[in-house]
């Protein structure tokens, strides 16, 4: 694949929030996970573990746990600063539209692998944790890119990383304590076409050689961008489109 092909793939990858109930071929799930196995990780420790969920009862239980956690999180929106603009509002069960996806893939990290890091990282909690999570993030992104090449839509269900949600899911799935849930991908055939993504201009984020404070955005510019991106993102959530 050349650069243009990769560029188009990355542009095509979107977080889909509306799925058809059509089942997926098992080979698609295998391909998604197989690609993730090739992602980079700190010291090549490959901390990832994948839990594929197709059983409807288990999926329903996962949806209920995620919904409970999100409702709690949304209560915190009353503490937001007014300049942030649009409030993140609950949509009832519509928020959980990922529930129609035929497959959930949860990614967990085996915390025991941290013991294999170089000693300078193993005994630096911040850098060791960052290295561990960076590997999981790389593999998770590879999964979404793989799904895109197969004509599938996918959604990041990051609520599963919240402590309460992760604890309840660990109990539901029988996970040992050393498996730390990182994120979950809902995957299936998209039922809607993604809308155009709102991006920052590249000239506003690229600097050459020395760059001082005057080269970066002002506080007012950052706040204006936050207001606009929050409004756009929340609107996309409400429309069951892509962010």
Architecture blueprint of SSEs:
Layout: H1 3-12, H2 26-36, E1 48-53, H3 56-74, E2 103-110, H4 119-122, H5 125-149, E3 153-156, H6 163-173, E4 179-188, H7 219-238
Antiparallel strand pairs: 1-2, 2-4, 3-4
Write out the strand line-up for the largest beta sheet, numbering strands in chain order.
1-2-4-3
Low-pLDDT parts are: none
Level-1 CATH class name = Alpha Beta
Report the portion of residues in β strands: 5-15%
Strand tally, please? Answer: 4
Share of helix, binned: 40-55%
Largest sheet: 4 strands, antiparallel
SS content category = alpha+beta
The second-level CATH architecture is: 3-Layer(aba) Sandwich
Average of the residue pLDDT scores = 89
Give a summary of the structure in a few sentences.
By secondary structure, the chain is of the alpha+beta class.
How would you describe this protein?
It is a single chain. The protein has a single domain, classed as NADH Oxidase (3-Layer(aba) Sandwich). It is built from 7 helices and 4 strands, in the order ααβαβααβαβα. With about 240 residues, the chain is an alpha+beta fold. α2 (about 25-35) runs antiparallel to α5 (about 125-150) and α3 (about 55-75) runs antiparallel to α6. The relative contact order is 0.20. The model has no long low-confidence stretch (mean pLDDT about 90). A 4-stranded antiparallel β-sheet has the order 1-2-4-3.
């Amino acid at each position: 694949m050349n650069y243009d092909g990769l560029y188009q793939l990355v542009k095509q990858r979107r977080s889909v929030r509306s799925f058809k109930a059509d089942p997926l071929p098992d080979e698609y799930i295998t391909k998604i996970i197989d690609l993730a196995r090739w992602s980079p990780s700190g010291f090549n420790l490959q901390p990832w573990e994948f839990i594929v969920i197709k059983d409807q009862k288990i999926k329903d239980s996962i949806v209920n746990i995620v919904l409970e956690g999100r409702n709690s999180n949304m209560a915190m929106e009353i503490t937001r600063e007014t300049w942030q603009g649009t409030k993140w509002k609950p949509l009832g069960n519509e928020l959980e539209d990922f529930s129609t996806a035929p497959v959930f893939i949860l990614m967990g990290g085996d915390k025991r692998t941290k013991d294999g890091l170089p000693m300078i990282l193993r005994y630096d909690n911040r850098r060791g944790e960052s290295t561990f999570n960076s590997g999981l993030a790389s593999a998770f992104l590879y999964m979404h890119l793989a799904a895109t090449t197969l004509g599938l839509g996918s959604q990041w269900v990051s609520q599963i990383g919240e402590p309460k949600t992760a604890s309840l899911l660990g109990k539901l799935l029988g996970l040992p304590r050393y498996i730390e849930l990182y994120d979950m991908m809902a995957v299936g055939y998209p039922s809607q076409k993604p809308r155009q993504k709102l991006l920052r201009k590249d000239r506003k984020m690229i600097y050459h050689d020395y760059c001082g404070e005057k080269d970066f955005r002002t506080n007012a510019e950052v706040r204006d961008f936050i207001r606009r991106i929050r409004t756009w993102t929340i609107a996309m959530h409400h429309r069951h489109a892509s962010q």
